[in-house]
Amino acid sequence: MYKILCKDGSAKRGQLETVHGTVQTPVFMNVGTVGAMKGAVATTDLLNLKTQIVLSNTYHLHVRPGDDVVKKMGGIRKFMVWDNPVLTDSGGFQVFSLAGLRKIKEEGVYFHSHIDGKKIFMGPEESMQIQSNIASTIAMAFDECPPHPATREYMQNSVDRTTRWLERCKKEMARLNSLEDTLNPNQLLFGINQGGTFGDIRMEHAKRIADMDLDGYALGGLAVGETHQEMYDIIEKTVPYLPENKPTYLMGVGTPANILEAVERGVDFFDCVYPARNGRHGHAYTNHGKMNLLNAKYELDDRPLDETCDCPVCKHYSRAYIRHLLKAKETLGLRLMVTHNLYFYNTMMEEIRDAIEHKCFKEYKKKKLEQMKEETK
């Protein structure tokens, strides 16, 4: 059950109660695509990094190790040793990202595995079955993430099919949750709003799926090539047509600035690979801008990554040492960078929740964005 605790303008401070624990929102979901954080960060580390919920991917877990294996091991949470909620992406984004390996039809999508070329078919029912086997807390409906740019005709046809697929997902989810051998019979279902940068298609689709009374709603198909301002405009136009009393999730977004802008427009849930990916490439998020630790000026710098940060990395390690690890291609360097970045993101979400509670979100956002533009000394 989702409950709004307070609001500051359109920014919502809420909580989602699930069978696997309560999620305080707005929230950032740490991305563990195949049941693991990239950068050698263990699930046992995540609570110290203020992580509430992890995202894993249906398609990737289906391909390897196989959702049947995950089910036999007691579900993804038991398998990866994580007691808290997990959200599974439906595989719909792979329809977009693996464009060269798939064919979309009304019944679903025909893939070739990116690992061994093996033929795979995934439709709404298959996606729900795989996610039920994985036993995530929240399952995402199977959709098509259309390419950007796309013609109005392509977009409308795609969105109509996504709506038909959503009806099939809802029906199949209800069936699966009623079975005796289902690992999580309380699995929640979030629907996905699509429509690219066509505001009218987005709004009409939002109205249609809002009537289906799902557990939550996502905005998909953004951050795929459009400008930041186009994305913000679409969020602003679409969110008012999604049920306010259900969580709203902006998929695959984003930078700290993207998150701040989207929270102001009523979004609760976020996920993005940036903290881990940028960390692995030597980029640290700090309260004084993003820093590239590979720069020579940090070679003899004995300060922590961020002198205002309380994370386990900043408490112990210097910029010089972490830079040395990265240059030496030591895995520990990646681990320390990703650990810090995840802590930074989760702390920012904590600050956002606090700012909404104290009715000072606009001031907080302005100050944070100004800090982000600074250059780390």
From TrEMBL:
Region: RNA binding, residue numbers: 252-258, 276-280
Residues that bind substrate: D89, S90, G91, G92, F93, D143, Q194, G221
Residue positions binding Zn(2+): C309, C311, C314, H340
GO MF annotation list: glycosyltransferase activity
Subunit organization: Homodimer. Within each dimer, one monomer is responsible for RNA recognition and catalysis, while the other monomer binds to the replacement base PreQ1.
PANTHER family: QUEUINE TRNA-RIBOSYLTRANSFERASE (PTHR46499)
The protein, known as: Queuine tRNA-ribosyltransferase
Gene behind this protein: tgt
